[in-house]
Structure formats: structure tokens, C-alpha cells
Amino acid sequence: MAGDTATPKLKRKRHDVQAQRKKAKVQNASSAVGQETAATPSTDLKTTPAKKVTAHGIVKTAGTPSQSQKKGKKHSKDGKSAVARSGSEAATPKTAHAPAASFLGDAPTGDVAEKLERKRLKAERLAEHREQRQQEREQKQKNGKQQPERRNRVVASGINGDAGVQGGTKAMSDDNLHDEQVDQKVPPDIRDPGDEKINNIKREQDDKKEFTANATPQTSVRTSRKGKQPKSKARSSASEPIGGWFLSQDPVFASDEKHLMLATSRSLQVYSTETSLLENTLQAGSANITAYALSSTTPNRVYVANTSGLITLWDWVESEKIGRWELGAHTRHMVVIQHPESRQDLVYCHESGTTHFLNVLALRTREHSSPTESKTILETNSPINGVQVLLEGKLVVVATSKSVLIGKRLKVQKTALQDFEYRWREFQTSQRITTSDAYVRLPDQLEKDKQRQQDPKDYIDLAIGDQEGVIYVFEDILSSLLTIEKSQKSGAEVETFADSLQPKRLHWHREAVGSLKWSRDGNYLISGGDETVMVIWQLSTGKQQFLPHLTAAIENLVLSPTGTSYAVSLANNSVVVLSTTELDAKTNILGVNSRRIEFAQMPLEADSSAYSYQRFSQIPMAVDPKNPMQVLYTAPSSQPRSQALHPPEPYMQTFDIAAQGAVRGQALTRNNATDLNMGPDGRKILEPNVEFLQFSEDGHWLATVDEWTPPRADFEYIDEGDLDFKEEERAHRRESHLKFWTRDVKNSQWVLESRINAPHFFTAVGAHARVLDLVSDPSRVGFATVGGDGFMRIWRPKTRGHDGVVLRGAKGDGVVSWSLEREIALSSSLDLLEPSHSEQASLDPRVARLAFSSDGSALAVGVSWASEVDDGVIHIIDAATGHIRRSITELNVTTLSCLGILGRHLIVVGHSIIVWDLVMDEIVQCTSLISPGIDVWDRIPLLRLAINETDRTFAIAHPQFQTQQNTPSTKTRPFKKGSMVVHVYDPYQPEVLCTHKIPDIVLALAAVKVGKGYIALDSSSSIRVLNSQNAPLQLPTPPPESTLALKAEKDERDEIENDDEQGDNALSGTLAVLPDDEALFGASENDKPVVRPEQLQHIFDSGPSHALPPVKDMFNAVVDLYARKPKVVPA
């Protein structure tokens, strides 16, 4: 065979096998019964296997005669049966009565001979396979010794393979595992071009084994695998979560201070301090990050711990994993220092659980000569809040909730890890400790005449802050503890309290101290808390310096390595870097500041009947029509981790999905950023809450609704003995505002243009009513609201004028004011069925929802009244006249949650998903919603609905609260696990198109403006893009007999949607009517229409790639060009 590069030994063996096969075939042919079979040419009896190219491009040999008789005809790749030929000769055509030939074209054999031949060939193949495997192992060992030096280093970086690992620590390496998998999948001999033929034979043997096991041709197996994928269902895909809340750990400066490291639960992010831009992201995988620390020996390496008990060493510059170690414990704090002798990393880890441990780890890879070791230095039952290691591990400071432990190493001269033993001294505090920091004073910083009782390097100053806002400064804390220890009787253990140490007391903060740090020279203390003020304390003079009016409460403070910058983490998920001299912001990093719900705020497993699910109410969110990659949502001013309240949301934040970062924020209501946030009675002054947010159809206007209700504490003076009376008085003092904002393109802000006080109100009592929903008119600029007063109102802009002259503003534009265009009174179902029924129920609707049709001609209003006997009603209103055209009372909407219109269908989400055909006036779909762990009534504020007009789909998100498994970590936290399931539906199909499972509660769901998909914002402040990707696009070619049916269905849809436009308007979302059957197929080939290149360019070059219309619309536009009747040119 040409190009055969097999070894001589293998050639001789194969030649002997072929000779034996030839002899057996001749014997079988002479003993065959009957003479029906036509004579086969000698070329067909060649023993050289025929080559066949499979779908993967691998050269394969044809099967043996016995295999062909057992398995029948072999199918080629295109599904057609074929007779294999040897060499380049073709087989002789068979007669009509000839039996089926085998793959090699030989005559059929007897049963006995066939069995013997099959056993013999099987033994030969087995011998060949064993010999081949032996050659592979030898070649693999040979290649393994010749691997590059870099690969050996990576493999050794995570695996030690030694028996000296102590403390249950196990070393692993992702890179090594990856290399081993590659070696298993790709044989080493493939790298040698001279052994290509041997590899082909090995592939042939593997393919024959798969062929025998399946008992069907390989091409048929592949076809069946493809056929298993249902064509009607789309492959769902979701992007990785973007954003997330930064961990409550101090930010980490790089050694050069040009980069700042922050971590969310899913990734470690590296930002540039010069540009505030994200430069690198290290993904954590399925487990969540719990702690991270920079290497003390290699500046470009960082240790990352996660919830699965793993510590991973990353090269954050190259985004490469260096090593990985399995601890089997939950690491909460991590500090890295240099070993005093080997100058390698020592990692101090706090492992949390029922008992808290502080371990010292020497994590080593194969590039180190020493093994991985572990040593436990502290065990306590109190939760550890902070760990600080000083003087290369000589001193360790541990802070718990109400005590501080200071450990000093005993055997300083011994540097072996197993000799690390500490003497611990502890003192108690009366208040809960919220933050602490220690400072080591060097000998040149001490007074010369000061007499001390310990080594000069052991002079430690300690500062702690408590929940009452008091800062305690302990000077030379070790001397004070040693003095008290000596004054006590020998052998007696007496608790030491902080007051007995006579600390210096600093008190300015009204609430708990959020963070506290020493300056590099030890002369200043920097503190911050919920007051949004950073305080700099000068200890020698007692003076204070303030940096007020930060955007949120201060949670973490850290100084840069050189002491020239402060990194301040705020409670609105942002980090700002300030210069220490000018206190000017050099870096501003914004995270997603949407409402965050912690795991401890989930309902309890035991009893959740009194739990309020209103904290999961929907966050107002909208996609910018002019910037489809930007989403706008409401955000609180501050969300301190120490408070589990549901704060109001007076701000709006803009997040860019493409840039994966927040770009700006803006206040929509009055706020306490510059005003006092504390009342005379010491209670916080609450800000208004933004309830709704919507864009106009042109993207130039933004409408918001904010609401403020006095706190319940302000009505404690009313003592009528009736709680309902207090709530009624409180509701009468509600303030509600409808605001209209115009876009300021130059300054990238929204400017308030009009404000309407009390858009809905109770006339009888003169009180503001709640606005229950807000929607935008998709056909022209305008908005519709429905309120608790039982009215639906439509608002339109109007240019102001006087005596026919347009009033112009400062920029020369006409002054626009918004006013009420129309209001419609809504009646209940009982009022419709029984006109004499009291109208009291209509004054107190429980839930009301609005939905516009895509063309703006119809408006649906669904109302669920606060009445046990009223099932609710859905009104279909003519938006042009304001008349109610239809009142749907057949549906029970007492648990109404969402409402929408998609084409001719009305989507109602409540107890179930109902699709109502507005034209046929009937139900077409009804799907039950099953949400385990939550009641149907409690589920109302958690359901989400979004409609995508581009691909004509709608998405439903519903919650699931499941009980945690009985593990030691969940016994102390018996909370339910909340998650969401998002289903995407097509109103014309009863089954679900795709399903997305989100591990958190979805607080907002919206459809993308360009293309297919949805955007979800969850309770972890993460944004996900949910896509529904169909199978590869194939242009449909319907048969002629189905054309009339397609035309009839098309005409029906066009009539329903009032789409009478024709021609080349398909790009604007209007689908042109298909031509009739005669026009489409009756024209002859010579009468084809002429399509100019300019027409195609108009379709495909209508804008940038991200702004192109849907593929369906472009396809219909092309079909309109080629399927239209040719123009008749008059003679």
C-alpha cells in the first residue's frame, strides 16, 4: 500500500494474517451450496483492507466477511449502502437473484466455518491489540522523559506525593490533572510522524470494537445520536453571572500599588488604580470564594480559598493556577507571611465550624524541596472575627465577638513548623467588638528613658472599636497583660477585662465602628462607620480631621504598602482609593448596588408562617432603548452587612453589560447623603422608595414613581387600642409622586422635567393612594398608571404656550409639561354581574397590573380586589377612546401577579400561567406553577414576567424554597435555600422552549432590546443574560401543496395584528404578506424578478451588528424580493 510506514515486524505479521484469510475464503467458496452466486474477480479477493474516511477524517479499514454477514449492510456517511472495494478495483455487478455480498465482496460461507473464522480473527486482533498497547506504553515512557522543563514544573507545582502531609492536608494540581487527561486521550505516538500507520491501525481496532458493541454501522450510531436531540426544543444557555457583591474583606493592594484586588463570591477581580477599570478576572468555579491573600514572597501570586475546602495558588498576572490544596474545612480568614528561615510562604488560616481553629500551613509544590505541613496553634469555641500576624509570626492577634487573644511564640529560635507553639493571653470586653488593629512600634520610635519588661520588638499598641461607636487604644498591651498576670496568684485563672488595662477612650461615632486602622508611623488612627464620615485621629494632640459625605457607610479601610493611599470599601458595593495627603479620590470602582438578600434573611425551615416575603418584591429595572447594552435599576443608598433591614431604594444605577461594570448612579428622590440621617429621637430618617421605572418608546423620557410612608414608630402616640386604626392613619399620610425625566446627553444624566403630586388619590379623605403599576405606551410617548383609588390614568407630554406662542426654556427648546390625558374608572366583577352590589370593594384593590399591546391600540388592566367573594377581573380597553371593550370575568385572578400582551395573546400569571386568545376569546393554554416551600399567596410578589417582541416569546420566573441537607454546617443555620426557575414559552407551543435554573432569587427580569434573550437581576446583585439559542438556521422550503395553508395562516396573523403595511418594511418589524401560490410557483424560470445589489445591501447593511433586526425579519425581506411578481414593462 502506498505510503505505508508500518514497522517491518508488523508488516510480516499482517502478511501472514492476510494469507490465512485468503486460504480460508477459497475453501469456503468451494464448499458453498448452490451456484447462484456470480463469480467474483480476483481483485475482490485481495486481502488488503479497503480504506474508508470517516466523519473525523480517520482512515478506517472495512469489516471482515464474518462481521458483514452478522451485521448486514454497512452504511456510508450519507446513509446509503455501499459495497466495499479492495484497492482501486470495483466489484462485479450482481445479478438480480444474487445474495447480498459482504463488505469485501466475497461469497457467503457456512455457519460452522463462519464461527471458526470469527474466533480465529478475534484472537488475531487481540494479539495485535496487545502488541500495539505495549508499543504505546513504551513510547509514552520514552516521551515522558523528554517533556519540556516547563511542563515538569507545572505538574510538580501542585502535587507533592509525600507522606509528610500533616493536619489532613492534601495537595492537588489542576494543571497536572489536565496533562494526565491529555496523555490519556492523545496517544504519544501520534507526535511521531513515522508511526502514523500504527496509529491508524489502533483507531481501526477501536472502531471495530465500537462497531461490534453497537451491532450497527458507525454512521447509523452517529445519526441516531443526533436524532436524540428534540428539534422542537431550543438549547438554553445563560451567561456567567456579572457583578456580585464584594466580600467583607479588606481590599488588597499589589506590591507596586498599581492594582487593587477585590473578590466576589464567584471571582477574584483585579482593577487598575489608575483607570479604575477591570483588568483581570480569576473565576472560582462552582464553589464560592471565602478569603484571599497576596503571596509574601512572589508579588504576582495570590492564595484563594473557597467553600469546598480548597486553597488555590494563582498567578494573577498570567491567570494561571500554580497549585491547589484540599483542606476539607471552611476557611474564613487568611494571612500570608514569610518563613523566618526558608523565606517561603506560611499561610495562617482560620477554619470555621462548630469549633474554630487557627492553623499554620506550609503549602509547598514540587518546585520546593520541603513537603506540605500543617500545625494547629489555636482552638476556640468563640467565632473569630479577625486575625493579624506580626513580626514574621512571632505575635498573633485574634479578635472574637467579646474578647481579644494575643499569642506569642515560645521557641523563637526553632523555625520548624511543628515547633510553632504560642502562649495565649486574653482579655474580655463588655460590648461586642466590631473591628480591631494592632501596631508594632520599632525601637527608634520608643522613648529612650522608657523601661519595659520584654524584648524591644514586642511593644504592641492595640486599638479596638465596639458596637457603641467607642474606640479603645491599648498602649503596650503585652506589658499590661504581663503585669496583671504576675499580680495574680500562681495557678489561678482569672478573667481579665478591658477596663482593668486602662485604655484610652475615643468616642465620636454614634453607631458601631465599621473599620479601624493605624497609620504607617503609628501617630494616627483612621476610622469609619455608618455615619458616612472618615475620621482621622491624631493621638498626640487629640485633634480630629473629617472627610464627610461619602456615598455610603464605611465597612473596610486599608492603607497601601507605602502609606500614600487609603482604600475604602463602602456599603453600596463600591471602593474608592484616596490619597493620604489631599484626600482626593484617585480610583472609584462601582459594583452592582441592587438590593442584596443574605442567606440569614431566608425563611426558617421550622416555621416560616410569620415570614414576610415582601423583601423579595420586584426591583424596578428597564433596558435603555438607545443603549441596549445598558440596564437601569433602583438601588439603596447603603446596605451595611450589620443590618438585616429592607432599606428604601432612592437611587438609580446604570450598568453596562458589555463593559461588565456600573457606569453611573443618580438620585431619584430626596436622600440623606448631605442631610442629617438621624431624627431627634435617635431613629433613622427613612428616604422615599422608588416603586416603578419605565422608558418611553423613543428612549428620550424616563418615568418613575416614588413613595414615602411615615414609620410606625411615629404613631406610637396614638393609643386607640386598634392597630388597624393606626395603619389607616399612617396610610393617609402617604406621599406619592410621579416624575418625568428627560435625557441630558451631554452630561449623561437625567434631568427632572415634571413632577405630579398624588397621581392617584382618595377624594373623600384627601389622601394619596398607592400607584400599583406603571407601563409605557409602545406606539407613542406616554405612560399609563393604575392606582389604589380604582382608576387607570394615561399621561401625555404637552408643549407649553401662551397665546399661540411656544414657551422656550434656557436651551431654546420648547418647555414640555406632562398632564393627564384620560382616566377610566375600573369596576369589579361583582359590579359587572350584580349592578346593585356595593362599590366598597372597588375602593381597595389588592393587586392591579397593566399591559399595552405592541401597537398601543389595546390596554389590559387586571385587578384583584380585596374581597373573598370577588375573583377579580381583566378589562380590555381601547387606548384611543378609553372605552372598555371586554371585561374578562371567566378567569380567577385573585392571586394575580403579572400581566402581559404578546401579539394576539394575553398572558396572565397567578396561580397558573394562562394564555388567552383575544381574537377567539378563549383559553389556549393553562400551565400550573409549582413552587415548593412557599404558599400561593406569599408567592405573588416573587413571580416575574418578561415579553420579548423580537422572537415572540415570554419568560416566567417562579421561586423554589427547599430544605437544606442535614449537615453540620446547616444545623446552626436552619434556613431554606431559595432559587429561581425561568421558563421561556412560545404562545403557539404548549411545551417549554428552554429552562434556566438560577441559584438565587430573581428580583428583576426584562427582555433585551436587540435580539433574543432576557436579562435577570438576582438577590446576590448579579446580572445574567439568558439566551434561547435554536438549532442552526435552515431556510425553509415548503412543498407546493402547503403554500396555500401557509398563506392563510399568514393572512390571519396579519389581520389580527392590524399589520396592513406591505413592501419593503420588513426591517421595521412588519412581516410582508406572502404572495399567493400562483405568484410564487406559477412563474416560469425566465420570469424571475431582478434583484439589484442595492436592495440586498439595504437589508443586510442597515446598521452595526448589535443593532441588526432579527434573522426572521431579514429572511422574510429577502423572500419578498425573490418571490414577488416581475414588473411588466410596457412595449
From TrEMBL:
UniProt keyword list: Nucleus, Repeat, Ribosome biogenesis, rRNA processing, Transcription, WD repeat
Major location category of this protein: nucleus
Chain segments carrying region Disordered: 1-242
Keyword DNA-binding belongs to the record: no
Record's compositionally biased regions (Low complexity): 90-101
GO molecular function list: RNA binding
The keyword Transcription is annotated on this UniProt entry: yes
Protein's name according to its UniProt entry: WD40 repeat-like protein
Natural source organism: Lophiostoma macrostomum CBS 122681
Lineage, highest ranks first: Eukaryota, Fungi, Dikarya, Ascomycota, Pezizomycotina
